[in-house]
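Dock ribulose-5-phosphate; give full complex structure.
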Amino acid sequence: MTQDEMKRAAAAAALKYVEDNTVIGVGTGSTANHFIDLLAESRIPLAGTVASSIATAERLKGHGFKVMELNQTGPLSLYVDGADESDPRLNLIKGGGGALTREKIVAAASDKFVCIADESKLVDVLGEFPLPVEVIPMAQSYVAREMVKLGGNPSLRQGYTTDNGNFILDVSGLSIVDPVELERQINQIVGVVTVGLFAARSADVLILGTPGGAQIVMPA
Ligand code: 5RP
């Protein structure tokens, strides 16, 4: 089974968390795209969706889903999204696709966060994947120096601007043994919009696509 087929298997297994006539949050990336396509095929009736990026909103609209503003909806019952890494407690690194800020907002506003990924994304300790940090453009150099003080090696994502008009630093070299504390520390750096560590609000369920099919992982 290819990595893409494992992503699709995880996305298919997430459909059982979708309840009729609800408004759900939908994430960004290739695994989330599989989920959107399978959701459309499933014909589960939805009251609406909230998108975590412009790209996701366009894909949802292309399938005829109603896309709503989070300010219109109140709390969401469900958020389904991918990840770049998950540890066994379901702390995540996200933002490889650059949508981390809106993803974190939608995750925070949702009662249940179902993360979908292929099996390569489950790791013992987060940090092999460079940690994305969205920054206000004028703070880019300052935040980069602060990230060096935390032991990281920041690199500006070249030619990339987020949906919010900001830049992303990809920070390698971190071994994230205490994700909650590191998220708190990075959040306190002036000029940081969002860090792609999802630990204060981790996933509730991880669905891993494996060669043997979808596997449900609960927080250790
Ligand atoms: C986007 C994300 C994605 O969920 C993450 O990059 C995983 O992407 P993919 O499903 O393509 O492997 O955080 O900002």
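Observed: The mean pLDDT is 98.
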